[in-house]
Amino acid sequence: MEVITIESSAFKYLKEKLSKIEQIAIDLINKVESAPEDGWVDSYEACTVLNISGKTLQRLRNSNAVAYSPIGGKYFYRVSEIRRLLSEKLVRCSGENLQDLIKNQRFYVEQKHAFRTNK
């Protein structure tokens, strides 16, 4: 076992820095949890929530009816964009599916956070 000794002022400084980092992390987690509409979902999740096929989602993209971001050959959509799409009644879907999407997105964020903290 290795024992490391440092001055008390250095220890207090490190402790303060760790507290600040912890507070930043907590603030970020709370921000994500309080605004799930700002989350992103992939095409599969969007199709599931909207209860449409991938081809229909592609048609919506091609007609500029839905905003998206292509990254590495995959398309991503904001939850708020899907909500807008539903509210304009461009496609039919129940609000229950949207709540499932928001819940799954929160779960995904928590899992991602847990994975990062376990590294």
Short overview:
This protein has 119 residues and is mainly alpha-helical.
Describe this structure in words.
With 119 residues, the protein is mainly α. It has a domain at 38-108: Orthogonal Bundle (Multidrug-efflux Transporter Regulator, Chain: A, Domain 2). The chain contains 5 helices and 3 strands, in the order αβααββαα. A 3-stranded antiparallel beta sheet has the order 1-3-2. The radius of gyration is 21 Å and the shape is elongated.
Biggest sheet strand order reads: 1-3-2
The overall strand count is: 3
Q: Decide which structural class fits the backbone.
A: mainly alpha
Q: Mean pLDDT, rounded to whole units?
A: 82
**Corresponding CATH architecture of the domain at 38-108:** Orthogonal Bundle
Order of helices and strands: HEHHEEHH
What is the CATH fold-level name of the domain at 38-108? Multidrug-efflux Transporter Regulator, Chain: A, Domain 2
Strand content: 5-15%
Query: How much helicity do the residues have?
Result: 55-70%
Coarse morphology = elongated
